[in-house]
Amino acid sequence: MFKAIYLTKSEDGKTLAQIKDMNLTELPLVDGGVTVDIEFSTINFKDGLAITGKSPVVRKFPMVPGIDFCGKVQESKNANWKVGDEVILNGWGVGESHWGGLSQVARVSGDWLIAKPQALSSQECMSIGTAGYTAMLCVLALERNGVHPDSGEILVTGASGGVGSFAISILSALGYQVVASTGKKDEYAFLIDLGAKEVIERSLLSEAGKPLQKERWAGVVDTVGSHTLANACASTKYGGVVTACGLAGGMDLPLTVAPFILRGVSLIGVDSVMASKAVRENAWARLAKDLKPSVISQIAKVVSLRDAINVAEDILKGSIKGRVVVNVNQ
Fold this sequence. Notes:
Elements lengths: L1 E8 L5 E8 L10 E11 L1 H8 L15 E9 L9 E5 L14 E5 L4 E2 L6 H23 L8 E4 L5 H12 L3 E6 L5 H7 L3 E4 L1 H4 L10 E6 L3 H9 L1 E9 L13 H5 L3 E4 L7 H14 L2 H7 E5 H13 L5 E5 L3
Helix pairs in contact: 1-10, 2-3, 2-8
């Protein structure tokens, strides 16, 4: 028997979340499946939407939410994994269309797993989680497209969230000049401690702006979308690079082609869900190398599996800073 957060839908269409005692026989069957004893998972923005039902993230019910986890292989029908291997999963539709990580046990395709970096503990891996992994994908995209520490200022939007927090820490450790954007004035000191050289008010970017604005940013890590992303593109320097990985402010993108055809700005979409194994392994290797343990613990806090249901509401309200790790065995 094991415990999991279990989502069902009521007759009137509401999502119901509960802690349920479950049996291994209830886990979905998967070709080449690997059964993992989970040690830590996390609560991400998408998990908050799934648990509260405030957006149709869950594709089918019942569902166990949780888009990432870290643990040890209990049983394997995949030649790449053996009992006792320490593994990480991020994305692949887990927690949306396939039972996920807010559980003490999961069964997933072995092709979705990568090996846990030896330099990181299971708790550290989930303190980083999908948020830190996505932040690193953004940093790698900036590097790949020619943005370097001497290129100029890098804007990070949604800076007090999980992706934003890790992006600031990674970029500053690599020598970049980071400017953080947030609507939470009480988090300014936290962001400066992470490595931001300056913090600006979210409202400077969140309202409708001119198609072209004063050039400032050599690169951008945007987690917000909508007007914030549009204004970031409009104020990026000639030849600069904007990476987009989130939609906390909305899915719309009210901009013109001006930044792209007059300044040669590049807008790079960053997806963490379906990235190849090689891309994932590279990102996690860099995370193990570039992130200091003190920073990881500074950004994350740990809650129990039962507490995770309430935290989902707080995530959506924007009242959580950094990362929330879930010890599924508490």
